[in-house]
Amino acid sequence: MTNWPNFNQAIANLANDAKAWPFVEARSLAKRLEAQSYHAKKEIIFETGYGPSGLPHIGTFGEVVRTSMIRYAFEVLTGRKTRLICFSDDMDGLRKVPDNVPNQDELSKFLEMPLTSVPDPFNTHNSFGEHNNARLRVFLDNFGFDYEFLSSTELYQTGRFDSALLDVLLNYEKIINIILPTLGPERKATYSPFLPICPHTGKVLQVPLTGYDKEAGIISYINPFTSDEVTTQVTGGNCKLQWKADWAMRWHALGVDYEISGKDLIDSVTLSSKIVAALGSIPPAGFSYELFLDQNGEKISKSKGNGLSVEEWLKYGSPESLSLFMYSQPKRAKRLFFDIIPKTVDEYFTHIGKIGESDKASELENPTWHIHRGNPQKSTLPVSFNLLLNLAGVCAAEDNDVIWSYVRQYAPGVTSKTHPHLDTLIGYAVTFYQDRVRPFKSYRLATHTEKVHLKDLKDALSEMLEDSTSEEIQNRVYAIGREANYENLRDWFSCLYQILLGQTEGPRIGSFFKLYGLKASINLIEDAINDRMEQADL
Questions:
Q1: Same domain, yes or no, for 60 and 123?
Q2: Are 391 and 515 in a shared domain?
Q3: pLDDT tens digits for range 275-308
Q4: Per-residue confidence at 99, pLDDT binned at 50, 70, 90?
Q5: Domain containing 312: what range?
Q6: Which helix (DSSP H) or strand (DSSP E) does residue 292 occupy?
Q7: Does this model's pTM top 0.85?
Q8: Cβ 132 vs Cβ 217: under 8 Å
Q9: SS3 letters across 373-441
Q10: Do both 146 and 57 map to the same domain?
Q11: What's the CATH code of the domain at 121?
Q12: 58 and 13, same structural domain?
């Protein structure tokens, strides 16, 4: 729980007009709560949900970081106490064995068992659910999120959900009438919001009820393993709920005020909201975010393996850049693939470099204000990440020292001690080059005509002083392209990228030549003229 005793009314006033989407959401929530008198003194509950049938993934991070941004914006706007619940639905039955875990044959024996009753295939915890919960908490803690972790199994078994479960039974017919119109004929015949836990196998049973007693808090069903009719309490962990009813019951029991979810769950949100209203509570506010696409514009799928994990992003880019990716346009579908990382890293430093250059109202619109919870520290880079990446490619860099030798010449006085974040970025650039660029690098041989133009460029650079600026070098490159009568100068630069860098796109070439050094750049062009680029890269 967070309390803000130093609530700043001046910042809150600015937040009332801020256009950044976390403030838009926060204002909408504040206005909604004003109409609900019973919210006047309660802390405001934000929630995110996690299904621990697999390891935490980039979607998990996206939900928590976006919710945290809205939560902080709400606190700044209102000064009210809030709490973020990260809820694990670990009492859900194991539907299939994940592809990325060991001991799969052994795990297959426990299908339909609650995740907290399935043995841990990694042999580190008491159950598979506990293992994945632990991974989730480490995952969230490493990013510094402020949250309260809640386990579905614990809340069902310790009785914290008992009162809400009895409310579900009390409103059984209302809930059935909400759900049944959405089901097919076969499913309608067997549907019940209650899923008993089999006393013999421990499995989560999807069986129709043969009867129920609201006053006694019991349900009856035919056990498929023994063919006997069984009567059980709905409380005490003897049952769990079907997930749409479970989601609604959770909102009802925990008093959740805000939860976001993916666009694929819009219909589920609608149904769960109707159910929670039937239970006598107000559905939480929230919004539906768009899902990620791969580089081909196709929906990311775990089974296809066309996604990008948090671990993969953090191998090549900073945590702050990942937060920026999640911040940007959450209601618009975005492509999530490796090549987006360098671009996002540079965008982060563009935003953080503007901190302190404008008034407070403008700072509230800066994404880094939200990434750093209202306390971004201005930081600049003497060299962009994109330039570092291209330099690593040309140098065939194997370690940071190779890149630093060029950076020190380009920006005297800049060291790994004065700019530790730059050293980190250089490390990312080297790794990105080795893993993602070098295996796919392909130089195009220059044509006879292009070699003439390259020689003109080499001669022009040879006439320039070593301390020429990036802009002066860029202008000289432009001049050679115009003299070569390129109808579109983009074709000239594309030629340079393909022949000199072995790629279809590249950096501002004047800035690259400046960083690489004029002498080294002239030698690079000479290698291209003499068809030695493949050998030079090796």
A1: yes
A2: no
A3: 999 999 999 999 999 998 887 777 776 545 566 8
A4: confident
A5: 292-371
A6: strand 292-293
A7: yes
A8: no
A9: CCCCCCCCCCCCHHHHHHHHHHHCCCCHHHHHHHHHHHCCCCCCCCCHHHHHHHHHHHHHHHHHHHHHC
A10: yes
A11: 3.40.50.620
A12: yes
